[in-house]
Amino acid sequence: MSRVVLLGYDLGQPSFRHRMQSLAAALESAGWQVRCERFPGGRYGLRTWERRELLRWADVVVLHQIKLSALEARLFASLARRRIFDVDDAIYVRKPRRLGLPADDSPWRRRKFAATCRWVDVVACGNEVLAEVARTAARDLRILPTSIDASAYMPTTATQDDPPTIAWIGSPENLVYLEMIRPALARLAVRHPALRLKVICSRFPEWPEVTIERVPWSAPTEAAALAGAHIGIMPLSDDEWSRGKCAFKLLQYMAAALPCVASPIGANREAVIDGVSGFHARGTDEWERCLDRLIESPDLRARFGAMGRAHVESRYSMHAYRVRYLELLARLAAG
């Protein structure tokens, strides 16, 4: 029986849940012993040495979003037989301090990312942007897009008689991206007085000019919350941090058969096919035009929504993701 340890800084973090914990049941069904364990930040070297028995127990250890210094990466490699570095964010930089600024960069962060790539057997990247950065140091590389179980989402039940509802789902720290399109939404609210912005989150914007429908996020209810919307949106700034994002909220919208409008940044360009499953929008005028077209046309929404769901099922299938990841783990364990 093969054994795997899945390490993350926060086991409740969305990326860990979608990329790591989503593998656990499939691995156990295939005869693996699985342990999902928290790995603390800081205390470089000591934190790895304290977990030496855990690392020696496993046939494969997966580091999810965890960068190691060069010395710690060597120590880690001496204790863990086979190692994967799993990445679905641009963790070689830091999110900009304010909208419009470049990503916060530092040689120390870049060196840790490169060292971790160098001292593992495989780097598993969520998209091509991340793979391009990892490629310079990785000995082996796989692109495994963050995927979704579309069957867990029911197609939207919102009708043309319901108030036009635009959905955004995400973490509180990403609410800042909504500010980019606030003027477009304000103008649309004048033209369509019943318009509402459904925000599925643990915090909510306070915008007097736009009606905000506040929906507290929870894993059991997020799919149902999306099913009551007409359109899904993902605005992003164009910086190195945003270009590394894996566009997961777009996959959620499309699984719910929602047409999408997205900034054409990084993985967004692959997730939403412009003019087929939604629109790419750049400035506020373009955001306004694209959203207005979808608000005005139930037929266009239905067509884009159906194409988006089909795209998710074929390109971002959770079943295919699990099969490919299990094959990778089995190959490393056998090696």
Helical content class: 40-55%
Largest sheet: 6 strands, parallel
CATH superfamily of the largest domain: Glycogen Phosphorylase B
Radius of gyration: 21 Å
How many domains? The number is: 2
Which architecture of the largest domain per CATH?
3-Layer(aba) Sandwich
Structural class: alpha/beta
Number of E-type strands: 12
CATH class category label of the largest domain:
Alpha Beta
Low-pLDDT stretches: none
What shape does the CA trace take?
globular
- SSE string, helix = H, strand = E? EHEHHEHEHEHEEHEEHEHHEHEHHH
Mean pLDDT: 96
- The proportion of strand residues reads 15-25%
Written overview of the protein:
β11 (260-262), α11 (268-271) and β12 (278-280) form a beta-alpha-beta unit. The protein is globular. It has helices at 14-29, 46-50, 52-57, 70-79, 107-118, 128-134, 182-191, 222-226, 240-243, 248-255, 268-271, 284-296, 298-315, 318-334, and strands spanning 3-8, 33-38, 60-64, 83-87, 122-125, 141-143, 165-169, 196-201, 211-216, 231-234, 260-262, 278-280. The longest helix has 18 residues, at 298-315. It has 335 residues and is of the alpha/beta class. The mean pLDDT is 96.
